User: What shape does this take?
Amino acid sequence: MKTGLTRRQWMQVGAIGSCLTLSDYLRLKASDEVGQQKRSGIFIFLEGAPSHQDTFDLKPDAPIDYRGEFKPISTNINGIQICEHLPELAKRADQYAIIRGITHNVADHGLAKKYLLTGNKVSQTISYPEYGSVVSREFPSTKELPTYVSIDEAFAGPGYLGSQYSPLTANKPKYGIPYSVRGVSLEEGLTVEKYRSQRELLRDLDITFRGFDDLDDQVRGMDRFQEQAYDIINSPATRQAFKMSAETDAEHRRFGRHEFGQSLLLAARLIEAGVHFVTVRLRPAEFDFDTHSDNFSRLKQLLPPFDLGLAALLDRLGERGLLESTAIMAAGEFGRTPRVNPSGGRDHWARAMCALMAGGAIQTGQVIGETDKTAGEPVSEGFSPDDLAASFFSNIGIGPKTEFLSNVGRPITLVREGRAIPGLL
Assistant: This one.
């Protein structure tokens, strides 16, 4: 009988004896088609769009009204320089890759955010899912854990995959304030035993309506959320993952006692617990990179928390042996204008931006791509957000050309236009 298994797959089967089931075979075959192992993921979405030329793509030889106030500093990789206000990341340039020359033509915050969160341009006919929803569909966590957690509410959502792949939304933790998540930490006066009783009542009521087979997607999603909420509330593992008070004060200080650092500390805890994807969404007004005015004074406040928090995340995952199994990406929705405006700010600029990737199969300690002398456009063709998404999905272990059957019965390619960036993986 011809099974289609590769030699590597037969070796995997041999290691577990003769217990190969159909589901085992299909799982092995799917992993071979992707060609990469399954990984967890963290997307750090720098909402508002930080200026690339003041962070990871400085142009010190450009005229003053282009290069701005910040100076480049050397990193621990010869020939790579980044902003002087990112000293901790400069010490760790061997742990990530910088992608410069990312370009697109969507300079509107709302549309660009959906583009960057899904890897597909906004369509009038298709609602594309964000990264975590795709991972939730492909790589579900164990029953007692959420697969996808969004720190702050999701923006793009599950799209055509359906509401059952929406994230568990967690509020951003604040240092020194007891942390709880709605649906994970029980409300005052509601015990687990009482919740079980209420759930049994709902189940009895559900039996009355079992004859109705035309449940729409929203209702199916609600049913899944009810089941998952029950499992989460009863799960010590999940409740422990969200228990920020379990961290030492030294660890809180390492990440930074600010919103960004505490959010990344929570992300690390969730990945360690077995959650497969976390989106950390830093949006205006709390952490606003939309610097139309006072760009440099505001970045002096914003970059140190970013620097400290991301450096701590890389260190912690590395120390716990999880960096190789966790794909990380940090990006905003676009870049900012090459020339500083009269208000001392930089405006929207989609023709050039940058991103960081780390973890998993990323070839770190390098810069891929290049912009011109004012950081206004990529040299040569550049890369699109679609390419960025294809690379990120590939690093997670999901083929970017995977087709899904949408909730309206239509097959849709995960990333329509993009391809993995050469030399990155």
The first helix runs from residue 7 to 15.
